[in-house]
Amino acid sequence: MSIFLCFLLLLPLSLILFKKLLPSKGKLPPGPIGLPIIGNLHQLGKLLYKSFHKISQEYGPVVLLRLGVVPVIVVSSKEGAEEVLKTHDLETCTRPKTAATGLFTYNFKDIGFAPFGDDWREMRKITTLELFSVKKLKSFRYIREEESELLVKKISKSVDETQNSSVDLRKVLFSFTASIICRLAFGQNFHQCDFVDASLEELVLESEANLGTFAFADFFPGGWLIDRISGQHSRVNKAFYKLTNFYKHVIDDHLKTGQPQDHSDIVSVMLDMINKPTKADSFKVTYDHLKGVMSDIFLAGVNGGANTMIWTLTELSRHPRVMKKLQEEIRAMLGPNKERITEEDLEKVEYLKLVMVETFRLHPPAPLLLPRLTMSDIKIQGYNIPKNTMIQINTYAIGRDPKYWKQPGEFIPERFLDSPIDYKGQHFELLPFGAGRRICPGMATGITMVELGLLNLLYFFDWSLPNGMTIEDIDMEEDEGFAIAKKVPLVLIQTSHRW
Fold it and tell me: Annotated binding site for heme, which residues?
């Protein structure tokens, strides 16, 4: 009853604000008719990208929705995405602000969700130079190779201990990506401390679930009251405090005198900047900037990398022809009885790269690119898009559009053989990392980590489905959140390959 009364009180203000936010001048995109107060919210399911895809199939590749008082443009075509991310990149490269993103980014002091401006430029410059540059990518090679070798040893040990043992790949790969990200970005080796891998997995999943959650405050004036009554505010804050305690643990370790570091990580670099005197008119790095960047790197790097590896192995398990072809090429190119795989070996296996690109097409790390906000009136595909309108690019829909892809629902890596299309932001039918000024700065690091991990798993082990399970039994249901996660864990039987 209390929530219903809140809706009634908010109705007049909501209608007035929406009219002001979205003036009716010019030709607006088509879209479904909404209801009073809530607009089109009732037409959206838990998986937003699938709901948006269904609506676009009926109304077209550029659709106008109203989520409460917030106007949202959903773009589901290559041509529309190119206009947003290239033609009008400068006019659309800021971010809308939501309650959860503001909280988890320490009032937008990060890179991913920060509004476009001088602060964002400075933070991106720092992280690119100190973490994501080509020089840093090469210098962190030993971390990725050591963790890949440790991954193989862990799985080999379980094979030796039990015959036909099964592996829950979500747990294994989560530990793998978390260990790499924490070492190269935070200078922390969690194999040697009491913060166990299971806690990291739970922390990332809970944080991402709350970061992408729906809040009435984002779509209705005074909606914060409903969030308080429903318990939403409390749930999000509990997850946030857990994440903050984790960052405190990492930062405190760095502040200890004599704390050994095997390299200059982003936390060390930013702590030096925080403690260094600066001129009054120059940019000043704060602890909130540090924790905001840590959030971006930790949540996107760990979850995105693990999910991509899981979906790749899932598709390989569903397509034995591709699995066989890939493993035969890997073992032929790398030779028999190799003791250790290095990143130089990645350049020898061309088919693995085709498999990766096809995985990105069907299972992009971000099915919806982080939302943009128009900073001026623009035109997209002939439609007027007013200032202060949220834009969502549906990469999930674009990657499955039969206009661009033959047999779009099929996993066929060969489609990229001799194809100019790649995932680096220049081809707008494939945008797993975005494009333009807001493209993901950690793309190269993430790709290298994922490819090296997969190369080790596919060289040293043969994989099969558990006894009694068929290809048709593999559950492909997707979980909700910013990233497309596989809802049901992938469990496979591993055996050490015998030459």
Answer: 440
